[in-house]
Amino acid sequence: MSRMVRTPSLSPARPLEPVGIPEAFAYHVARDAAAPAVTCGGRTLTRGELDRRSNQRAHLLQAHGVQAGDFVCVALPNGIEFFETTLAIWKLGATPAPVSHRLPAAELQALVDTLRPRLLIGAPADVVAGHDQMPADMDLQADLSDAPLPVKVAPHLKAIASGGSTGRPKVIVDAGRAVMDPSNPIAGMVVDDTILNPGPLYHAAPFGLTHMALCWGGHVVQMERFDPDEALRLMEMHRVRYAFFVPTMMHRIWRAMEQGASFRDDDLELVMHVAAICPVWLKSKWIEWLGPDRIWEFYGGTEGFGATSITGREWLDHPGSVGRAGAGAELVILDEAGEPCAPGQIGGVYFRPAAGPNSTYRYLGAEAQRRGDWETFGDMGHLDDEGYLYLADRRTDLIISGGANIYPAEVEAALETHPAVLSSAVIGLPDEDLGQRVHAIVQLDPRVKPEVSARDLADFLTTRLVRYKTPRGYEFVEAPLRDDAGKVRRSALRAARL
Question: Going by C-beta distance under 8 Å and a sequence separation of 6 or more, which residues neighbour residue 29?
Fold first, then answer.
């Protein structure tokens, strides 16, 4: 069958004609109010239903004192109520600040103390002190007005909470207003797309992509929690055309396919993956499965001061790369002295936005990592002769053992090629002789029998890693090592073992 080949871009194809997010969504409500807007947990809201219910929530929030310019902290799980709430916040000209509903009390308290929101939605009343709160599942009474509200535009698109590599809570406030062009999608989407998002909505990329999709007339198929078999089922059931994954999800879907799961991929046009380094072997498998024209990778950060992207076809010529810088920012690799590195030399990955420093975001509770006008997310990597970026790891996660630099992601990628390894995290622990020793924390796949031992894994790695990079200790755990967005906090794992 013939297949549309999408040409993803980080920038619109023509100059934006922005309107407020509620107006952008309303544009597609007017086109077809009966079209599906959000599906989650076996329930679907049409565009018209989502518009009316978000109006009701907006009136409810207004009664709780929310005004234009406020921050509203949203501690809700993935679900339809999340989308109703964020649209309601924007309709009041306020800015949503999503956080995990599973945050420990102390971390949530620190975040809201930093943000100072007008209202906190979803947290138990006895968890956080000193802030106005509204519980989750606030009933929408039949007599609550669903009348449209006066048009307002929030001064900030979003405010995303992050523990970052330091573990200290911070908030990244988007410098851009909450506006969107309803007819000009980016990020590989098309108008009226059907997208699958398995990730947590409190993370920047899932939050941004799903809400942008709504502004472009999309049908968002949102998972409550990722499960590989359920993801495949939902993609078939809803004829998903655009799927958004992190490498951990890609790994588990691939394992499920190897173990007999079936999936008809005729409707799937584009898979985008972000958030972590994708092992070369895993990306190769996906390209073999779906073809290079259906795979796209994006590297960037919530701060938005720079990004790279790469198509599957480009990747075949530059395996392991995350692409070249997109329009609007320059990219450079700097050494410890702040001097540019030669191609192939590992250093800090820095971007310089065309509009200058402070043009895309501001921090609450943190300071930017800058060298002059250049800014970094904290990652290390190198460029090739054509300007393609290859990531190594975060500077804070680098292991220096016996004077040699060891990047945990490289060791994890090798470990996860073993059919029994579901996920892994590699950290450096103190060693009197070496300074640090490589320690591997491994979650085995319970469906793979017989179980493997530390010796089995050590033998497996002898042909995949040079000796000094191989772990000197193995630890087996049952709990997942990565969160729903595929992120691992190596600093927290290290601290727990110290």
Answer: 47, 48, 51
pLDDT of residue 1: 39
- 486 vs 443: CA distance, rounded Å: 14
Of the candidates 348, 394, 403, 405, which has an alpha carbon nearest to the alpha carbon of residue 372?
Answer: 348
Name the CATH topology of 19-225.
Rossmann fold (3.40.50)
Write out the H or E segment, with its range, that includes residue 221: strand 219-222
Cβ burial, residue 364 (10 Å; 0-12/13-18/19+): middle
C-beta neighbour count of 16 within 10 angstroms: 12
Second-level CATH architecture of 401-497: 2-Layer Sandwich (3.30)
**166-178: pLDDT as tens digits:** 446 789 999 999 9
Distance CA 311, CA 337 (A): 33
- Give me the half-sphere count of Cα atoms (radius 13 Å) on the Cβ side of residue 194: 16
- Residue 196 vs residues 210, 268, 310: alpha-carbon distances, Å: 9, 10, 20
The answer to whether 153 touches 69, Cβ cutoff 8 Å, is: no
Q: CA separation (Å) from 15 to 11, 57, 176? A: 9, 33, 16
Contact 274, 299 (CB under 8 A): yes
Closest CA to 413 of 271, 290, 224, 283: 283
pLDDT tens-digit readout, 259-308: 888 889 999 999 999 877 788 999 999 999 999 999 999 999 899 999 99
Helix then strand then coil, % of the chain, to nearest 5 = 25, 25, 45
DSSP 397: G
Phi, psi dihedrals of residue 79, rounded to the nearest 5°: 170, 175
Residue 251 near residue 280 (C-beta atoms within 8 A):
no
Contact 312, 294 (CB under 8 A): yes
Query: Taking a C-beta distance cutoff of 8 angstroms, is the pair 183, 215 a contact?
Result: no
CA–CA separation, 300 and 162 (whole Å): 15
CATH architecture type of domain 300-396: Roll (2.30)
| Ordered DSSP codes for 276-343 | SPPPHHHHHHHHHHH-GGGEEEEE--TT-S--EEEEHHHHHHSTT--BEE-TTEEEEEE-TTSPBPPT
Distance between CA atoms of residues 79 and 40, nearest Å: 6
Is pLDDT above 90 for 497?
Answer: no
What are the residue ranges spanned by the domains of the chain? Answer: 19-225, 300-396, 401-497
The DSSP letter of residue 24 is H
- The residue type of 158 is K
